[in-house]
Design a protein that fits this description.
The complex is a heterodimer of chains A (316) and B (396). By secondary structure, chain A is mainly α. Chain A has eleven helices and no strands. In chain A, helix 5 runs antiparallel to helix 7, helix 7 runs antiparallel to helix 11 and helix 9 packs across helix 10. The chains are: A mainly alpha (316), B alpha+beta (396). Chains A and B meet through helix 5, helix 8, helix 10 and helix 11 of A and helix 6, helix 7, helix 9 and helix 16 of B.
């Protein structure tokens, strides 16, 4: 009994420690990659090739003055970033990094991920509302509309693969795949990637924090560690979304020669790299155009995909 | 009948007034919507300086808009009355600091017209060369910030890479990078330094290739198109009546470029096309400036060729204590942002009696509310970018 609890705790510490470190270094990676894409160096000053930059950033944010606007609703203002971060980190609990390495295996893993992710939106809306600033309010409202609608497509795009896999258990989904699901479900894959971009608020769909119009949107008024929570949550979500894509569409840890967790990380970072690459390339959509793409183009396609998958499965 | 509150409603109800109508009024009162007033600027990353906009929003749609300026007012025109004609030149640099040479150009042309000074031809070519380099650098800065506003981050750094080359050239010739103060009444400060022409030629070789880089990221990009096509439209008549000029009006199909329509310096000897597109929208204005950069590059090449072959003086003899005859004059040049005019009144003394600057950004800014009404907040950003304002020039 004690032995088991100890083991579980160890796993939790390892996964969360690694996750937080990853998230911190993800910011470094993004700055470096985008830097080189934009003919510049990225961070270079702190440590060799700026390797200590995320730590320096963390320390700086930690010591920053914690400003709460006069107009803000205090309690909500404090709670909102926590909701965001906690929801983002809790998701790591069910991600199977390799066959035997996951904090917990629950038979509704995917459902758990989708539902916790929805709760995370609450944090953003509350943050926008509680700041008492018009810009933040606009940002918060935008993200409410955006994330609710894109969760629908995200969920629906996973429906096809689910029907094939026949399980919501993330480990089972990987085990079922003889060849990557991508081959059976290319349409779902594309929709998933687009919806994921919307879900994690990244270019070209980074409307809630549209820097140029809303001046950072929902987190305009946040500073110091509270801002860092949003920041971490955002990058953690990026990792989770990539992890789900890896698991559902690219057969997770499976692959020849290398150990499972290496394959998992390779695939994961392929997605992460893609998200960063997109950010360096595209402008931003306008809010209404973005919703139009979602409801008028993606929803019919993704529904058709489910129907077609169903019919093909019936026939085979 | 308007019902103000519940109390009145109850009174009316007690009196037995027809319920249907009253209820309707109460409902209307209760659900009355109000515009959301948002203050954009003067501290806002996308208003390109200290421009302040007051927006009335319904949701995210703009119902009304007011432009508030004056946050960068330095009284340049008034200052001019206390400076000699020579001393005023550095102040013109600080109007549109993105294209200081073009600002110099307008002023010296006006003064020379007033005093009827003959400028050596070599000086004219050097002026055109510098003004066109300024135009490229100004348009590069515009493209960089405009793209950044719409979210395309990489274009920003690409453009700054090329702008850096131009600034290096300026530094070589004038010692300054931003506020160059290179033009003088009757010519330019000094001849071009050794090695300048080669370095400038190198830039002219590289630049068209680099424009292709920007095109790869924007020109046919679906997202870029959906953000710019049919956004912030303004018709030619409306634009003209609001005093829109420069690339902004050429994007509405009006073929009006002072370099062609009213040639000054040596523009009539140079071969270039005036960029005109008739989309009337943000995208058309983007196309105009994009083409202008390439055309300016052509002009620079021609100037370089001429300058290589024809050495000579670069400054006419103008006395240090310079007293133009009594009179008044208006002269305009095609600055990167539009028609830049100087109206100078002279009373025959060493100082101008009055200088009025017709700044293109100021006039162009007035068409912003016209462009933005009915659009979304995000479009305001695109519209501001597309008329390319510099606040130093708006406020003077």
């Amino acid at each position: 009994m004690l032995h088991e609890i100890g083991l579980a705790l160890l796993r939790i510490i390892v996964v969360f420690g690694v996750a937080l470190l990853f998230v911190a270094y993800l910011t470094y990676l993004e700055r470096k990659i985008i830097g080189h894409m934009q003919v510049r160096m990225g961070p270079m000053r702190v440590g060799p090739h700026g390797l200590l930059q995320p730590i320096a950033d963390g320390l700086k944010l930690f010591f920053k003055e914690d400003i709460v606007p006069y107009e803000a609703y205090k309690l909500t203002f404090y709670v909102a970033p926590l909701i965001c971060l906690v929801c983002a980190l809790v998701l790591f609990a069910v991600i199977p990094v390799s066959k035997s390495f996951m904090i917990t295996r629950i038979n509704i893993g995917l459902l758990y991920v989708l539902s916790i992710a929805s709760v995370g939106v609450l944090g953003i809306i509350l943050a926008g509302w509680a700041s008492g600033s018009k810009y933040s309010l606009l940002g918060g409202l935008r993200s409410a509309a955006q994330m609710f609608s894109y969760e629908i497509f995200l969920g629906f795009s996973l429906m096809g693969p689910l029907m094939i896999a026949g399980s919501l258990d993330l480990a089972k989904i990987v085990e079922v795949q003889k060849v990557p699901m991508l081959i059976y479900q290319p349409v779902a894959f594309v929709i998933y990637i687009i919806a994921a971009l919307g879900e994690i608020n990244r270019v070209p769909f980074d409307l809630p924090e549209a820097e140029s119009e809303l001046v950072a949107g929902f987190h305009t008024e946040y500073s110091g560690m509270k801002f860092a929570y949003f920041f971490l949550a955002e990058y953690a979500n990026m990792l989770v979304v990539s992890a789900i894509a890896t698991i559902v569409f690219l057969a997770g840890w499976k692959g020849p020669f290398l150990p499972g967790w290496v394959w998992f990380l390779i695939k994961l970072f392929a997605f992460v790299y893609f998200f960063i690459w997109v950010r360096a390339t595209f402008p931003r959509y306008r809010y209404d155009q973005f919703m139009q793409i979602g409801w008028k183009i993606m929803l019919p396609i993704v529904l058709a995909n489910i129907v077609v998958t169903g019919i093909v499965m019936m026939l085979i | 009948m308007a019902v103000k509150d519940e109390k009145q409603f109850k009174e009316l109800f007690a009196k037995g007034t027809s319920l249907g109508k009253v209820e309707e009024d109460v409902m209307r009162e209760a659900f009355k919507t109000q515009d959301l007033w948002v203050n954009m600027g003067p501290q806002h990353p996308s208003t390109h300086g200290v421009l302040r906009l007051i927006l009335a929003l319904q949701g995210e749609r703009i119902v009304d808009m007011e432009v508030v300026i004056g946050y960068l007012h330095r009284g340049t025109e008034k200052l001019g009355e206390f400076k000699t004609y020579h001393q005023f030149i550095p102040l013109t640099d600080r109007l549109d600091y993105i294209a200081a040479n073009a600002m110099n150009h307008g002023y010296v042309v006006a003064v020379e017209k007033l005093a009827e000074i003959e400028v050596p031809e070599r000086a004219e070519y050097i002026r055109v060369l510098m003004a066109e380099l300024s135009r490229i650098s100004s348009h590069l800065l515009w493209l960089a910030t405009h793209a950044l506003d719409i979210g395309a981050m990489t274009v920003f750094l690409y453009c700054f890479r090329e702008r850096e080359m131009i600034l290096d050239l300026f530094e070589m010739a004038t010692g300054g990078r931003l506020t160059t103060t290179y033009f003088r009444i009757g010519g330019v400060a000094d001849d071009l330094p050794e090695g300048f022409i080669d370095k400038c030629k190198e830039f002219c070789e590289i630049f068209p290739e680099r424009v292709k880089d920007y095109d790869d990221l924007l020109y046919k990009n679906r997202i870029w198109l959906s953000r710019t096509v049919n956004i912030a439209k303004i018709s030619a008549e409306k634009g003209l009546s609001l005093g829109l000029s420069g690339p902004s009006i050429r994007g509405s199909g009006v073929n009006w470029d002072l370099r062609r329509s009213n040639p000054y310096s040596v523009y009539d000897k140079l071969d270039f096309e005036v960029a005109v597109f008739d989309g009337c929208d943000v995208y058309a204005r983007y196309l105009v400036r994009r083409k202008e950069m390439l055309e300016s590059c052509k002009i620079v090449k021609q100037c370089l060729e001429w300058l290589e072959k024809n050495p000579g003086p670069v400054r006419a003899k103008v006395p240090k204590v310079f007293k133009p005859p009594v009179g008044e004059v208006y002269a305009a040049v095609e600055a990167p942002k539009g028609e830049l005019g100087y109206y100078i009144v002279s009373d025959g003394s060493t100082r101008p009696y009055r200088i009025k600057i017709r700044a293109p950004s100021f006039a162009n800014l007035m068409s912003l509310p016209e462009m933005c009404k009915g659009h979304l907040v995000a479009d305001v950003i695109a519209a501001i970018g597309s008329i390319d304002i510099v606040l130093g020039e708006v406020d003077r």
